[in-house]
Amino acid sequence: MPMNWTTRELLAAWALMVASIALIGALLLPPQGEISQSVLVAIAQFLVFAATLLGVDVAVNKIKELLKKE
Predict the structure, then answer these.
(1) pLDDT one-digit tens code per residue, 9-24
(2) Separation of alpha carbons 42 and 62, rounded Å
(3) Out of 13, 35, 42, 48, which could bridge 19 as a Cys pair, Cβ 3.0 to 4.6 Å?
(4) What CA–CA distance (Å, rounded) separates 35 from 38?
(5) 12: buried, middle or exposed (CB in 10 Å: 19+, 13-18, 0-12)?
């Protein structure tokens, strides 16, 4: 069965991937410029939060759809 991704699901997946990459990069790379690790970690946390909210919304909508079918 093929997966049809909605815009919210794609946005949540993208935000989670970008946040993960930013977090790993912030922790592994030595400081090289003006941006401190705390700023990168804060951005990563924000993106994870956004992905979480979007993911919860998607899950709730799917449950509602399943309940309507029954």
Answers:
(1) 787 778 778 877 877 8
(2) 30
(3) 48
(4) 8
(5) buried
